[in-house]
Amino acid sequence: MSGTPSNRPVRRRTFVLGTAAAAGSAALAGPLAQTASAAAFGYSDDGTNYVVDTGASLVFKVNKSNGDLTSLVYKGTEYQGYGGMNSHVESGLGASTVSIRQSGTTILISVTHGTLRHYYAARSGENNIYLWTNRADTSVASSRYIVRVKKGLFLNDEPDSYTYTNSTIEASDVFAKSDGQTRSKHYSKLRVMDYNYIGWSANGVGLWIVRSNHEKAAGGPFYRSLLRHQSADGGGLYEILHYAQNQTENERFGLQGPYVIAFTDGGAPSSSLFPGTLTTSWADSLGIAGYVGAGGRGRVAGVGITGRNTAHPYTVGLANSAAQYWGSTRSSDGYFSIPGVLPGTYTLTVFKSELAVYTTSVTVTAGGTTTLNSIAIPSTNDPSNAGTIWRINDWTGTPAGFKNADLMTYAHPSDVRAAAWTGNVVIGSGSETSAFPCYLWKDVNSGLLVYFKLTAAQAAAAHTLRIGVTTAYANGRPQVTVNSWASPIPSPPTQPSTRSLTNGSYRGNNHTFTYNVPASAWLTDTGQYNVLKIDVVSGSGAAGYLSAGTSIDAIDLLA
Fold this sequence. Notes:
The chain contains two helices and 38 strands. It is mostly beta strands. The protein folds into three domains: 188 residues, Distorted Sandwich (Beta-galactosidase, Chain A, domain 5); 88 residues, Carboxypeptidase-like, regulatory domain (Immunoglobulin-like, Sandwich), CATH 2.60.40; 176 residues, Galactose-binding domain-like (Jelly Rolls), CATH 2.60.120. The chain is globular, with a radius of gyration of 26 Å. The N terminus is likely disordered.
């Protein structure tokens, strides 16, 4: 892009994410909200679009030939559109069959494009649009729904923003500002489980997408993807239906939704719209393809989990080829409850932070609750329980705690705010974890050194060295040298093939590399430091931060 912004932005309040605690001030955005103008609820046909008046403060239009959302007028102001583009599934479906009907206080617009079905629903007196998308197979491209918002209305300078004055530093979607900070639509900071809604607030208006429960998405509770973007020419809010970037699972098919476009008076959307809270019994009889109401779903509950490390949060996930769900455990005893689950048999996984430490199988039936007795995590399932000579960081399935780890969820590694990616580590210094970089690349900081001493008894025996990783790019993996002994080059584990370390995500497939270091490798002088050298090896990748690399979880030397 080139040029300069046409509107100088005023100072505005910006919201990125929200939870139920922040939503109390926006009750009028909820499903039960009514206004004095509800009598205007209804729809018309202007020849090109179906025009829906919600009877509140929102009037929207849907194109009759392709299903695009062509207008979003809230309190008399048009919010839809930038660059001549509409809001729609993917980049627009093209020729489609579009129909509309009213059922009492609900208006439903149905869009059919090949095997794909998409729906917009309006409820009398609400400033919300409810959306569902049913992708049956790969014959129709569908990875997102994007709400395109006019320029100047919510302009901001968040990590997921960029402006015309930025320079491109990677692909066509990562930018550097003149002050050295980086921006990209990929830099959301958030895992799926961390947010209920995404959007902006300015001048007494809030525009949000409240996400669906993502049961037909992929990647699990810790998955990260683009959520919004903002620039001088306008902004975009996304509901990701399937995002292939750094993806760890196969695509799921079927109905996703509802997700909600919600307008407010500037506050957060009502918590009654949030996934896990929203009830849609009013949609049970609308004939939405693939729709399963509350009565056709079940629940999984666990009375508790023992063997936890209470210093870390625990999450329980359910997954099979058709659906995924998750829920947080209670910190006091590990109790959990996951409602709204489609019938079927699922793999249940208990995660310590993001590290899988227990799995089992559960079967869910419609209208029933599958109750599990207390789950006992075997001590050997958590690598943190192993006896060590030394350890750098705890095993959590994340690089949290390492140098630059937090920054890398919303910035490029070249960002001016990043500490130096080089620098060696001394065991016993007290700064082992904070001094160790969260990522290692073949071209950037391969060959990092770790210094440590051993007692005579320790040096007389062979030991196992472990390096845990959370993802890798271009098959980057660690080969180690201890003093003069070199390990074999390990085989690369299965990891996503797309960018990860440079677009805000360390989430891949957790893997532990083990190296059996013989006693002959150690120095016999206990006053000297042994030197562990960690190199990143791979024959693929590009250069610099796109060279082969990997994200580190923990490193330890077993006793």
